[in-house]
Write a structure and sequence with these properties.
Elements lengths: L1 H14 L5 H37 L6 H15 L11 H24 L4 H5 L1 H36 L3 H7 L10 H7 L18 H7 L1
Length: 212
């Protein structure tokens, strides 16, 4: 009798107008695809880090604390398996989000170093890496916005009646999204602007000694 009741329940839900089962299939795949692009762009950024750090080291070896911070933040990001299954675990998603935020902050501090080292700012390799980083940060923003929009559509479907019944029956739980605070952090991603003339500044003693 229990099996029959379950069967009737399934038929009843699927028989409802706009049960949303096919929509869940589509939106779930859309979410996975947009997430894959987010991960891809974050990985692209992570791949730039070693060359960027090594280039900066060549001109600012005394900035060890910053270098260690970037390296550790990158390692933390690399320790997280950003698979589609992570989207079903809000705690794991939050951990991923936090780790990427830490790397963003560490890279920002690394970029600030260049302001104190004129020779570094004029280095062609460093300028190329800066441009690549800026382009990647822009791609990350675009990918994240696409993910946010796709997850919003999926979650509305999962919470609305009668499609919420389909969601419960087939275990389509709502998916985590990037938080408002994290959006504020990403908006302060490292920027590169070669159009501005270099402002005059007092060079720290360590820099003066280095450039002699």
């Amino acid at each position: 009798m229990r099996s029959i009741r379950t069967l009737f329940a399934v038929v009843a839900v699927l028989g409802l107008g706009g049960c949303g089962y096919n929509d869940f299939q589509k939106f779930d795949e859309d979410v996975k695809a947009s997430w894959a692009e987010v991960v891809n762009q974050y990985q692209r950024r992570s791949d730039l880090v070693p060359n960027l750090v090594n280039t900066v080291k060549g001109f600012a070896q005394q900035e060890q604390k910053v270098f260690i911070g970037v390296t550790e933040a990158r390692a933390k990001v690399g320790s997280i398996q950003a698979t589609p299954q992570l989207l079903n675990d809000p705690a794991a998603f939050a951990k991923f989000q936090s780790a990427q935020g830490e790397l963003s902050s560490a890279l920002s501090r690394l970029m600030v170093i260049s302001e104190n080292y004129p020779q570094l700012k004029s280095d062609a390799n460093f300028r190329d890496l800066q441009a690549q980083l800026e382009g990647t940060e822009n791609r990350i923003t675009v990918a994240r916005n696409r993910y946010i929009k796709t997850v919003k559509e999926y979650n509305v479907l999962a919470r609305s009646f009668p499609t919420n019944l389909t969601a419960m029956m087939f275990s389509y739980a709502v998916k985590p999204n990037f938080s408002v605070e994290n959006e504020k952090a990403i908006s302060n991603a490292p920027k590169v602007d070669f159009s501005k003339e270099e402002k005059s500044r007092e060079i720290p003693p360590s820099v003066s000694e280095y450039t002699k």
